[in-house]
Amino acid sequence: MKRTQTVMAAMVLAAAAGLPWAQAADISQGVQTLDLSTGSAVLKHEFSAGNAGNTFHDRYDFTASDGQSLGAFVASLNQSELDLGGAAFDSFKVYNSSGFSFDGVKQSAPGAAVEVWALSIPHLIADNYYLLVNGTVRNGAAGNYVGSVAVSPVPEPSTAAMLLGGVGVLGWLARRRKA
């Protein structure tokens, strides 16, 4: 009888290991659209308790104008000893409509209190882009990650030439007054 119970328990455990609910779930958000009309936008994903080990692949769509520069980051707490939930990021990338990608770079040291990834693109072309944030929930506590995306116009060469010309005229006037 005892042997039968042991065999049954082993079979139940083996079956449970193969069930979908026993594996990491994908808790990705739906596609989010960022409004960069004011120059910046916030991105975030909040995790409820009980999501330890679950993965996410969050997409944030946005449109950029020709000549804009882009800066973005994502950050999450790394405080599992305090039972604060957070995310471990696998990648942070920007893609254009052709599928070309720009990789983010991990900025924090291993074991740091906050995990931070950042990316910078000095000159975008007019196109539709999206940020992709991939990672795993660190522990079973409720938590989140937050980030920011900012775009700013890059001055045209004619603007820089006019600025230099204006400084030259002011220098010429100042020199003329001294003489």
Structure description:
This protein is an alpha+beta fold and 179 residues long. It has two helices and ten strands, in the order H-E-E-E-E-E-E-E-E-E-E-H. Strands 1-3-9-5-6 form a five-stranded mixed beta sheet, with no helix packed on it. Strands 2-10-4-8-7 form a five-stranded antiparallel beta sheet, with no helix packed on it. The termini are far apart.
TL;DR of this structure?
By secondary structure, the chain is an alpha+beta fold. The chain has helices at about 1-20, 155-179, and strands spanning about 30-35, 40-45, 55-65, 70-75, 85-95, 100-105, 105, 115-120, 125-135, 145-155. The relative contact order is 0.22.
Write the layout of secondary structure elements.
Layout: H1 2-18, E1 32-33, E2 40-47, E3 55-64, E4 68-77, E5 87-96, E6 101-103, E7 105-106, E8 114-121, E9 127-137, E10 143-153, H2 157-178
Parallel strand pairs: 1-3
Antiparallel strand pairs: 2-10, 3-9, 4-8, 4-10, 5-6, 5-9, 7-8
